[in-house]
Amino acid sequence: MISNEIYSTTTEDTDVKKESLPWSGLLALAMAGFICILTESLPAGLLPQIAGGLGVTQAMAGQLVTLYAVGSLLAAIPLTTATRGWRRKPLLLLCIIGFLVFNTVTALSSMYAITLIARFCAGVAAGVLWGMTAGYARRMVPESLKGKAIAVAMAGTPLALALGVPIGTFFGTYAGWHLIFGTVSILTLALIAWVLWKVPDYEGEPAQNQLPLHKILFIAGIRPILFVVLVWVLAHNILYTYISPFLDDTALAHRVDLILLIFGVTSVIGIWIIGLLIDRYMRILVLSSIAIFAIASAAMGIWINQPVVIIFGVIAWGLTFGGAATLLQTAIAHAGGQSADIAQSMLVTAWNLGIGAGGMVGAILLNWFGARFLPGSLVLLLLITLLIAWSAQKHGFPGLAKADC
What we know:
mainly alpha, Growth Hormone, Chain: A, 0% strand
């Protein structure tokens, strides 16, 4: 597997020679990802409550997701580039403190404009965090364990979707959404102590090794991967952000918490499967994940009045999307090689552009055509994504012989 850190041979990295995973440090990164995704996704399960509390429509409440994504979108590349020479641990702590501050503001706010600003600033912290997480995890382990290290560090994402979001949705319905965001702040305080105690520090990237951004963008394989990231996440987020209004037209109208729980649990299973198979079958996993998601979306749109079809569609959706971040980060690490940190920040930008576009495009579709149209809109997007991923066989999503795994 190609290393994304040409400076990983410094004396500070000698402790990674042990052939075992540093669980405490990797799980701290996973917890940071958990809080990041929880902060991002909670509004999706609490749209009616947030809309009522802030005195806005559900479509306007959905822009809390959009502004978070915009913050990440605008911050990921410039701030990751500006801070790539910084020591890693202080930068990680700065991002986590950002979540603490801006989730606390959200928890205390009763004004829509202030809440939007807090969400934007939390997104900025997330953009930097995601730009460094994969590289941080890879530096903790020897070459033979880098794939597993990324999988562990990314486990917080599906766990947040499996546990955090549905639990937050359930309790937020009865206790109020302000209390849920306050609880996330308390978890963040605990994470700060954990990082201070258990996460190792590493040097930043030496200035002489830093390639210009435009040269990184034109590395073979980078652009098709970024396109797949953008459209795959756009499709996912159209449905995920507006899952509540979509379910309002089904027999599962009052079981948003159950549907999110099913999605989250199957996402955890999905990332476990990806972790087992990614080193040998990355291309097959990417293509099959996109194709199955497209089929599931079509089924949910056609048989919207069949709860069993909706449930099985959500299961397929979770299984295929749960490992998407790991698949795409691994692909761009292979393609980016020595410049993978900045390539990762480009991935973060594309990912959050997809999230933000999903919130906006979903709102337009919701207002113009109604929630029943949402799954059908995904199918076209996913077919285009599948075509681009299929065509990127030489660079981007190579088979086993070219993956250098």
